[in-house]
Batch of 4 targets.
Target 1
Amino acid sequence: MTRTTALDALHRSLGATMTDFAGWDMPLRYGSERDEHNAVRTKAGLFDLSHMGEITVTGAQAVDLLNYALVGNIGSVGVGRARYTMICREDGGILDDLIVYRLEDSTYMVVANAGNAQIVLDALTERAAGFDAEVRDDRDAYALIAVQGPESPAIVTSVTDADLDGLKYYAGLPGTVAGVEALIARTGYTGEDGFELFVAPADAEKLWQALTEAGAAHGLVPCGLSCRDTLRLEAGMPLYGHELTTALTPFDAGLGRVVKFEKTSTGERGDDFVGREALAAAAERAEANPPRRLVGLIAEGRRVPRAGMPVVADGQVIGEVTSGAPSPTLGKPIAIAYVDAAHAEPGTAGVGVDIRGTHEPYEVVALPFYKRQK
């Protein structure tokens, strides 16, 4: 059975084109995905992200469990702050990338990607053996609504008395938004400033309507998953199943910085964590002789690259596209790809993408393609 969010009827009333995404019926677009994309870059967009998977970890040893189960140093996350991290297999392969929020001294919320939520839940439950901690599936306890874009602070400020000026990036605080109890997080997946609001599903429609009304004067529009993908692509943000897979370690993905071999922990396991040995070896390999690196590609022509297409140079395959799409902001097709280290430097000449037998020329650039002005 395909799952629906608490906002399903509302999306349909707005004429959304719906699609199956990770077992959820989700809005793909409401009208023009280009217009939705540009609204987020210049004004603001409203997203239903209730397909994401929330997992609560509580107990005296909650932090020790998370330090052991995940690659990051969760012990250094303060109350009210959040951290981007990953959960890996024993061989170092990435099971998922996550955000961990520390809600209270001994209470954490792990937010997993929709398609991996059950995998992450199962892994955390298994790894909790021997820890004084509880892992709880809270996927049905939350709806998640995001407001993203330069106008988002003004919009959310108008319907809350929470101190948003004092809310830093990757931080969250409990508050009331439009009369609804929420966890207000300054996080997002668009490359813009914005907020993700975790609320009870029963309150989701009231909050959506209030934000729609508050945002009308600011150019806020409802946005689907299609423009969310082009926004994150321009911002150089990885997508699980594309830039991140179990076949890759964080070091392979150019995200070795999220792996912390020293942990702030009071537990018996200290700095030990699942995948530590394999990741230490991967770190050495990446420093000595990285096989491939993640780069950006900008088309010289108009043909759009897609995931799985070969990257070529001098008639040889030197890599593979992981994500590609037309970029509304740049006005050209763009792609993220893993390429051989010898061809990974920005400006490397002679690189192309094999698009159905034709080698289309592409410029190698450093990620991200787009970075907002702060």
Note: The CA atoms of residues 148 and 283 lie 35 Å apart.
Target 2
Amino acid sequence: MSTDVLTAELDSATPRSALTAARPKVSTFGQWWVLTTRLITPSLRNGDVLTTIVAVVVFAAGWYIPLNNMLGKTSGMSSYAQFLMPLIALQGISFAAITGALRAATDSVKGINRRFDSMPIGPLTPLVARMSAGAYRCALGIAVALITGHVLGFRFFAGWVNAIGFCVLLLLIGMVLSFMSDLLGSRSKNPEATTQWLMLPQLIFGLLSVGIQPVQMFPDWIEPVVRNQPISQFIYALRALAGDSTPTAGAVTWSMIGPSVFWLIGATVVMVPLSLLLLLRRQS
């Protein structure tokens, strides 16, 4: 008996309702949860968590210990830890974003993304799962940065509401960075090269920012770049939200917070359509 005849007989012998009932219902939430867990659970045993902790601590100590005596008094704030803390926190979430890019690039190289495309999974579900894992990594980086900053002497002076705003702004920045890193990682053919390319601009913008020293201490010709680039604008907003025992941190006003919001909105407006375009192109 041929396969076609056997299949026809089985179809005629089995009620259509029974065939339909045998198919499990696809749960988008369940798929998201499984894919998110797939990314988060290994981080507890493959060294990602430890790497984040060590990276933030080493970065903070590497800047604070040699520069405290040199720049502590010129910062204009109560302590150099208070001045340096926003850059430490931004570095923490940047490490989280780079780790996400490495994971996305690895999945792309191994063909896991193509496998997901051939499965009954919503086209945006893997992306949302990666962003959820990115939120977890960013929250971890923020927590480690806050603990490290507290040990160095950082404190919140502007109240709990602004302290929450400090963490929320950091998380939003981290999500935008994670989205950007995921976009680049998903199109990469070399995971190691992806992390290096992402590390370089963050290092350059971090050095050429007001995170290490006041803008007045830079050469006059580069002051406008240092003052207006996104990392400096984020640092201005974070310092105001953290506050200080001196007025140097600035007040929490729209003129202080607004540029950071505009940078985040602008980056999102550019990246979301680009990500959807690349997703549709990959599935076509």
Note: The chain is about 75% helix and 0% strand.
Target 3
Amino acid sequence: MTTASAPTALPAPAAAPATHAGAPVGADATRRRRRPGLAWLGLAPFGVYVVLFLAVPALVAVGSGFFDAAGRPTLANLAAFTDPSILRAFGASAALSAVSAVIGAVVGAVVCWALSALRPDGLVRSMIDSVASVLAQFGGVMLAFAFIATIGAQGLVTTWLITTFHWDINADGAFLYTVPGLVIPYLYFQVPLMVLTFMPAFEGVKTQWGEAAATLGASRATYWRRIALPVLAPAFWGSLLLLFANGFSSFATAAALISQGGIVPLTIRQQLTSETIIGLQNVAGVLALGMVVVMAVVMSAYALLQRRAARWQR
């Protein structure tokens, strides 16, 4: 007698597609996730602010350089870039921004290195972060007045040095009221800005990298030279460029200390109040165009460096 063969097992049903919050994950769900939602409406007030108070004034300022006194379009005003006084203003602005950026970047990097040894949620670290956030935005007339009252011709420190050590720091002229003297007040906000922008890069350096290098026999100096510094280099140069752009565009502090031109922002003010280049109109708009070009180049390089530095912060 023959025995009945065992029934053939049916194939297992195909696994259902993975779901997320009860919805299948597929092409339709991906398209739904990519659709702009109502959350984009939260950016509307910021977008209106950017357009009205940043984009429109910038376009008007730059566009004015391409019109003559009668309102006709012209490119003749671009000849202002060949004027010696304009070239000196751009050179002075670049030198001032570079010096203050380099000093601020080095000092700020040292401060970040010292802060990296502290607990991120500790009291000292929190206080320093708060102070840096405030001082990075502290500028303008108030900062200029603070330095005038401290190391100006009749400042507290100046008077104390004269009465105590018979040393007048302004004997050869008030250094604070010159373009090189602007480096001193500029450092007051450049160093805190460096701390704010460079500290996340220091936090991205993992302690496991140092432990792994020590396990492989590397010294502390080798670790910094071969691992830590190459990782921190893009963020450092990016922060340096940000400090350069910050110094290049600063106006209020310099305007409160220097009455005449000397750097580009002050030269723009001078051209707005009285045209000093004979035969050319709307030179202020031409200078604004030059500043926009410089800032665009610097910030583009900054964005590229930040993109490279972000690879180590993931």
Note: The beta strands are 19-20, 23-24.
Target 4
Amino acid sequence: MKISIITATYNSARTLRDTLESILRQTHHDYEVIIQDGLSRDDTLEIARDYEPRFSGRMRIFSEKDNGLYDAMNRGIVHATGDVVGILNSDDFYADDHVLEWINEAFEQGNTDCTFADLVYVSANDTTQVVRRWKGSPYEEGAFVKGWHPAHPTFYVRRECLTEYGAFDTTFAVSADFELMLRLIEHHHIRTCYLPHCMVRMREGGESNGTLRNVIRGNKNIMRAFRKNGVRVSWLYPLKRLVPKVLDRLGLR
């Protein structure tokens, strides 16, 4: 089963090598890598082009002006030709050489439309230092309103689901990934599969959790995502969402 890995880049020269090396180490080789660049001004494109021959025709590079991270991801999805689509951010990397193999095995069984797993947040300056662990769990109906949701960097979905139900809604800015998963899983009830493995090592300081302002804006957008998808939720939801993060940081989950 072919897996499309979309990596959106913008001035990502400092971290992109780690991302690409982690893909090259994968034991499952039926994949394509789509680099969707936003006209980087550093060495990002040079690095991507240097790596391109090592992927033996499985990497395609696009560089054009976009309207932010989720617009770049949507552009990458348009270019995707795989059966399954996932996002690997340019400052993240796979935590294990068997990640794509795990994903492939789950989809080959034929009874799921998406997979998700665990991840760890690592220090931006020392990726061997784990700052927080995100322990996932299987989906249960209504789980989103209780503060549950998948870790988006571990979320892989059949491309046909994105074609039928739409990709990222860019009006949600830093929370478009949450809205997408809410829409697909809670609203459209696509079939889910939790993989009990650590899939991604994610550097702290990303788009949605890099600043307090983004955290607040993200929570506002999340409440709007519930309204858009017709899911009733308590105004206390942001606290429910916060508790698992605190427990993860304290190592209590």
Note: The first strand starts at residue 3 and ends at 9.
